[in-house]
Amino acid sequence: MAAEEHGQTAGEYIIHHLTHLQTHKPASLVDFTVFNFDSMFWSISLGVIGCLVMWLAARKATSGVPGRFQAAVEFLIEYVDAQAKGIVHNANSRKMVGPLALTVFVWIVLLNAMDLLPVDLLPWIWQHIYGATGHDPEHAYLRVVPTADLSITMGLSLGVLIVCLFYNVKIKGVGGWAHELVTAPFGTSKNPVAALLLGVVNLAMQLVEFVAKTVSHGMRLFGNMYAGELLFLLIALLGGAFTLSVTGFVLAALHIFSGFVWAVFHILIILLQAFVFMMLTLVYVGQAHDSH
User: Fold this and answer.
1) In degrees, to the nearest 5, what angle opens at C-alpha 105 toward C-alphas 101 and 108?
2) CA distance between the termini of the chain
3) Does the annotation count 63 as an active-site position?
4) Is residue 101 part of a domain?
5) Residue 4 lies inside a defined structural domain of this protein
6) CA–CA distances in Å: residue 102 to residues 75, 80, 151
7) Domain count along the chain
8) Among candidates 106, 202, 90, 108, which has minimal Cα distance to 155?
9) Which residue of 98, 168, 201, 222 has the smallest Cβ count within 10 Å?
């Protein structure tokens, strides 16, 4: 699926790689009738793999001297648990919040790590499978980085929002949370008219806060991973420009060097973005436990 093999321009090559395997083209910027099958497939598959790896670690755990794999998993669990204890002070809540944070971190690391695969590898395989079933291989679209899909990252952030709403009700009660919605952050007044106005303003501020946190939570992860995916595509184009000339060899060398450097740096981004998403999840859930 290299650019020159199909006579694609650089723009067509990038557009092809950024097109999802989906039910149909979105009719607008937000179209809830569209399902991106590739993002769903990789998200579910990697989620199952992550659960299987953690299950195997728990199954093979010993009380003696741990192996490298067990030591790494224990370190990760203890680290996430320490972060949860520092943010969510309710010990009963941490029984769910701790494993949730660990799941979020491991899952997002796996989703992000798909960006380290050669950009043409899985699309090339899918192209041949798609063509073998009688379809036009030119329309064999496949994106393999689920976190570069806004619907996936916003789905994750909406899941965190639901957890926060659950703990708001569980910890404060329906009445207590409703009272907080209309009294924080500006308080209330004994004057009925002023109390009503303050209640409306407070409620509006609370709704804006929930929306802003949810949108920024998902957009931050999406933006970083989308930019990383796009940069890998641009680096791949350097290799596609190889010819038997001095300029061609220079471009090929630049392709290898820049690809290696960006891949090494991207490992940090993969881990950092998963860590940030996990920490914000803990912070938002911790805020749901606080009373204003």
Assistant:
1) 135
2) 56
3) no
4) yes
5) no
6) 12, 6, 22
7) 1
8) 108
9) 201
Q: What is the mean pLDDT of each run of 10 residues along the chain (292 residues)?
A: 59 94 91 95 98 93 88 95 96 96 98 96 96 93 97 98 97 96 94 96 97 97 97 90 74 90 96 98 96 74
In a domain, 26, yes or no: yes
Is residue 76 within 8 Å of 102, Cβ to Cβ?
yes
Indicate the pTM of the whole model. 0.93
Annotated active-site residue in 68, 220, 245, 258: 220
Any catalytic annotation for residue 45? Answer: no
Q: Does residue 3 sit within a domain?
A: no
Residue 119 sits in which domain range? 10-289
Is 216 labeled as catalytic in the residue annotation?
A: yes
Q: Which of 224, 245, 258, 291 is catalytic?
A: 224
